[in-house]
TrEMBL record:
It comes from Chitinophaga lutea. It is found in: Cell outer membrane. Residues 79-226 form the SusD-like N-terminal domain. InterPro entries: SusD-like_N, SusD_RagB_dom, TPR-like_helical_dom_sf. This is RagB/SusD family nutrient uptake outer membrane protein.
């Protein structure tokens, strides 16, 4: 097999990588014919088009980590010219766009090249002689799904895009090759059609787990369709008056500026179908089995492990789609604070910080926002107090930390590491033998020139509980990156139901399922008992805000916030707020627990859509630039 892979790489190299991004005319015809003469080489070609997926766990370049406002890197560690970091700092441009997935540069991958290769596969898979027809049908469905997904990925970034329905013949004229962007509604309809066609021929579940995990199923196709249609129904793409004058060549309107409520109904139907298919396929919300622990565990610890392992336990039943080619090694090393004074400094990177505004979005232990809880002193959140032995499963006893860290929901402690917090795991898994973070200047987590969090918080959720940082080495327990969890789908459904029908039993059901796993009561009960805005869940507007916050909490650090803030058109508000953290130069509690301003981001209206590179507009005069660029 190894010599086949080497031969295939040599054979396909020029074909796959030397073409321009919108070169939709296949070349090297003889090479293509050779590839589809055998099942083995055709399969390698299929794996090649899988490999065009974005590098989701590229901690420094993939935009959803350092390109937004959910993580803020220690500037002493991270190279400031990294593409994602440049986007976060407001330096996106038209000359050399960062995370350029249109052309495949500056941290991006060429999605149009990927789409062309999907078309090539679809055109030729029927020719392979040593394959059964059922296998050809399945592989074609996988290629069709990937073609749809790559179009969707571009759509989410650029809005109106050219649709590459088929590769053009080699006799095509220059004018025929110069494709145009198509209207948003046309793009959505085409991508949804591809996903429906793919779903019809995809397997219900993966049975050959040893060799096929990570390949797509019917559940994956329907989940991505749900995600697509919720995105299309959201304010950025549904009735967005800001783009009323956005037209393509020939005067074609690329955005429908009239709001269409029916899009939410269609999205809700897609979410329901995706959930039903996922549950038929064996997917369910993940709950940790305490029998796997060597010692008896408290309910608090079991809930924390349910939350963390829903992301970090590979192949767990909640994950609908997993990217096997993306392993969270660097993400874990950047999210793990130094826990021992002799930690290997070369591998404990520890520089991904969580801004205070993200820390504050988590609920209190009563399941409502900290600014609304009648029992929680919001105005004193930055003051300090001393933890007691009763706090030992959350905070270090007899240790001074901020009020902000007391009496928060379990997802707070499962998702965040901070000064005085317990870091459960580390090979111990014992409630009586805990490791705690100490992050004031000169303490273990903040005594190195660059291996510390600049905000005072780490995204603990990204670190597998079985990853061990010891006094002599770090052993990373890796996991493939989860692209879609059932909890995500439940919350998409709740959002679509609220927008199409308003609050009701069915709408609350799906949020409350996610909250129950986190150890919280339902929305209606929690707001009625503890919120100063007790009636908020009873209106569409009030419940919309609750659902948005629930998504930001449940899916924190998984990439959803980056896209959600954009599709909700909330990025202009949220991402113009300053990035703040604790004073990492402070040696005492009084000095450390002072809010420090780190950066003021700038998000303009134009930033909702990616710019098309200027050079591309010159080469193809049928394209138009994204608004504002």
């Amino acid at each position: 097999m190894k010599h086949i892979k080497i031969w295939l790489a040599a054979l396909l190299g020029p074909f796959l990588f030397s073409c321009h991004y919108l070169d939709i005319v296949p070349d090297n015809i003889a090479t293509i014919d050779n590839v589809f003469r055998m099942r083995n080489t055709a399969e390698q070609y299929l794996f090649t088009i899988y490999s065009y997926q974005p590098k989701y766990t590229d901690a420094y370049n993939y935009p959803t980590f350092l390109g937004g406002d959910e993580l803020w890197a220690n500037e002493f560690t991270v190279n400031l010219v990294k593409p994602a970091w440049q986007i976060a700092k407001g330096f996106q441009n038209v000359v050399e766009p960062y995370s350029n997935y249109w052309g495949g540069a500056n941290g991006g991958r060429g999605m149009f090249v990927a789409i062309r290769d999907c078309n090539t596969f679809l055109d030729n898979i029927g020719k392979v002689p040593d394959m059964d027809d059922y296998e050809k049908v399945r592989w074609a469905a996988e290629a069709k799904f990937l073609k749809a997904f790559y179009h969707f990925y571009l759509f989410r970034m650029y809005g109106p895009i050219p649709l590459i329905r088929k590769n053009l013949p080699i006799t095509s004229t220059t004018a025929e090759v110069k494709v145009k962007q198509e209207p948003v509604d046309t793009c959505v309809a085409y991508i949804a059609q591809l996903l429906d066609e793919a779903a019809a021929d995809l397997p219900d579940r993966i049975t050959a787990e040893a060799t096929e995990m990570g390949r797509v199923t019917k559940s994956v196709a329907l989940a991505v369709k749900a995600q697509l249609l919720v995105t299309a129904a959201s304010p950025l793409f549904n009735g967005n008056g800001d783009y009323a004058t956005y037209t393509g060549k020939g005067g074609v309107k690329l955005f429908n500026s009239t709001y269409e409520p029916a899009k939410w109904t269609v999205a809700a139907e897609a979410c329901k179908a995706a959930i039903e298919e996922a549950e038929r396929g064996g997917h369910r919300l993940y709950y940790f089995n305490p029998a796997f622990l060597p010692f008896p565990a408290s309910p608090e610890t079991i809930t924390e492990m349910s939350i963390r392992n829903a992301v970090c336990e590979k192949w767990n039943p909640e994950v609908i789609w997993t990217s096997t080619g993306n392993r969270a090694t660097t993400l874990q090393l950047e999210s793990l604070p130094r826990l021992y004074s002799s930690d290997k400094q070369s591998t404990t990177l520890a520089s991904f910080g969580v801004p205070l505004k993200v820390v504050e979005q988590y609920y209190t232990r009563n399941g409502v926002p900290i600014s609304e809880d009648k029992t929680w002193n919001y105005n004193a959140r930055y003051a300090t107090r001393t933890a007691t032995t009763a706090d030992a499963l959350r905070l270090k006893p007899n240790y001074v930390t901020a009020n902000l860290n007391f009496n928060r929901e379990t997802r707070y402690y499962a998702g965040l590491g901070f000064d005085g917090s317990r870091w459960f795991g580390q090979g111990r898994f014992n409630d009586a033998d805990n490791v705690y973070v100490e992050a004031k200047l000169g303490q273990i987590a903040n005594n190195h020139a660059w291996a510390f969090s600049i905000t005072g918080y780490w995204p603990k959720k990204l670190v597998n509980p079985q990853t061990v940082s010891s006094a002599t080495e770090i052993t990373v327990q890796n996991y493939p990156w989860p692209l879609m969890r059932l909890a995500d789908l439940y919350l998409l459904y709740a959002e679509a139901l609220n927008e199409s029908q308003g609050p009701g039993v069915e709408t609350f059901k799906w949020i409350d399922l996610v909250r129950a796993r986190a150890g919280l009561k339902g929305v209606a009960e929690s707001w009625a008992q503890f919120s100063i805005n007790a009636g908020a869940p009873n209106t569409k507007e009030g419940l919309r805000k609750i659902i948005h916050q629930e998504r930001l909490i449940e899916l924190a650090f998984e990439g959803s916030r980056f896209w959600d803030l954009r599709r909700w058109k909330e990025a202009e508000r949220v991402m113009n707020e300053p990035i703040t953290g604790w004073n990492y130069f402070g040696k005492t509690a009084d000095a450390y627990y002072q809010v420090k301003y780190l950066y003021t981001q700038t998000f303009r209206k134009r930033d909702y859509l990616w710019p098309v590179k200027e050079e591309d507009l010159i080469e193809n005069n049928q394209l138009v630039q994204s608004p504002g660029w």
